[in-house]
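Example complex used in Figure S2.
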Amino acid sequence: MAPSPPRLRAPDHAVCPRAVTWWTLRSVLGTLVLLAVQGAAAGALAAAGVAVAVPAVTAGVTVVAGVAHALVVPRLRFRLHRWEQTDDAVHTLAGWLRLQWRIAPISRIQTVDTEQGPLQRVLRLSTLTVTTASASGPLRLDGLDVEEAADLADRLTKATEALGGDAT
Amino acid sequence: MTAAPDPVAAVPVAARGRWLRLDRRVLAVHPVVDLAKLLPLLVIMVVSGGTRNDRWQLVISLVAAGAVLVFGMSRWFTTTYRLADDRLELRTGLLRRRHRSVHRDRIRTADLTASPAHRVFGLAVVRVGTGSRETGDDAELVLDAVGRDEAERLRTVLLGGAPETEDAPVPTVASLRWSWVRFAPLTFSALAVVGAVWVALVRIAEEFGWRPEAVVRGTVRAPIWLGGVALLATAVVGAAVAFTEGWWGYRLTRSDDGGVVLRRGLLTRRTLSLEGRRIRGVEIDEPLILRAGRGARPLALTTGLVGLGQAGDHVGALAPAVPRAEAHRIAAATLGAAPADTTEVVLDRHPPAARTRRLVRALVPALALALVLIVSRHDLEAVVVAVVLLVAAAGLGWDRWRALGHRLTVRHLVARHGAWTRRTVVLDRDGVIGWRISQGLGQRRSGLVTLHAVAAAGRGRYVVPDVGLDRGMEIVEATGPGSLAPFLSDPAHPARVLTRR
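Predicted assembly (669 residues):
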């Protein structure tokens, strides 16, 4: 009997629960920005004398979609996003519509940075960015607790130094 | 048998430790180049008479030119460089002195370019790069300009090669064949040239006072086929001219360390050296129109190649558009292997679910467009166009499916995809420095994943679309650094790790 395809278990660690709040706030802010833009457009149209039916409809759709997004997506992301550091690589699982599993081997890491935006600072969260020699961009871990991120950055930096090399 | 003369020792001992200046002929080049830039303006001024406003313009531009001239000449006085045993140093700047030094170990590129003005005076510009991803001033050291012999000496010394001597012929991989010019108009860049040429012509006409409206009215009244012919002619002629200028004297030679040296150019002569240790793979691009003409472009995937940013140049191009077999041969020769083992190796097919996905993704937008067309214009013409659209989309989707394929050989990961531009990528297995495995909603149901191999070379990420889940994991496990083994588990016994050979 042919063996069934091996299942891949998800990486161990989830992100910090406060990340849900952060994602929700960002979603709400995004919706508000969209509404502001549409409001400005509606205002311009009204001044020009054109009917504001179309902007009103799009504004309504934006509100509904925005509320749905803010309620559903952050919680979904919290359930799906994962990360883990094995002996030789950092693995992250991210995304909600399109899942992305990223593998960054420790021997190829060039820099490890943590950063905090203003919202993240209030919520005591931080983003870890791992760059490699590739032109295709770094690996990003969102929504980590501040101390957890600092700890992970520390461990990765030590592991990278232990290996050395050009990392290309 | 005497050993090859050491290039560093060949320089007089006094010069080795001394700061060298750029070539004196640079003082002559700059005035010539700057005056040449002013020439069109002067010609227009003379021809169109020029108003009082124009005379002011002339005076201001002459003053500006004078300032640029003085600045250019001051550059000669303030720029010096020194090539020591372990580093290259460059001192520049009049008001703000900059001292830059680069370790010779970190130097990855040393390329020469010589514009027509430089060539007349026997000079060349040397660009030394470290392959780091910094941009702007730190990206490379530029010596503008040194004598041609000195430039060649620097190039060979910095890249650690032996100088090419007459009695040690270097193996040539490829040299120019004029029959290749027939492929030049088939690349997409040729179409871009057309637009640029017409815009430039309109601008010049405006400068001379010819009213564009008259021209436009004339063209509107002319039959459409005339316009089409004009565009086509411009594209063909423009592409042929660009090909001649860019690839005149093209020669690709292989050097000892497995790298290649590429020389080309008519007006601007370019010498590009790709070291063996920087080459991580090759790629063969076949844009749709070029593929119809049975042509292809070979490219090299290298670390740290900074694009010289010239229009129509492909970063890492090994040859212009050439016949397909020739492209495969050149690409494989760059890797030091045969085409049958690398670029033309037989590829494994992807699962049937991938075919469905390709067709669906091609047909759905076309279907939507066709419906909109039919609904908005209830006539036979719309139906015909819609049918043509659907057939074309189905053809494109089928072509995309046929292009999909991958293979893991001993040294390389070979992957092919795309219909609009069919790309066959041969990537060194050692050159893969990470992975991205992504799975969209549709792929989750059909058990497919898309792999992105992250590399330090070329574009950075190379895609293997729509492979089966277990095959994808096999590829990642077999190739890349970063093992998935800790995550694999036997579904019957979750605690046991399933090992895969």
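The longest helix of chain A spans residues 18-48. Residues 75 and 130 of chain A are 25 Å apart (CA to CA).
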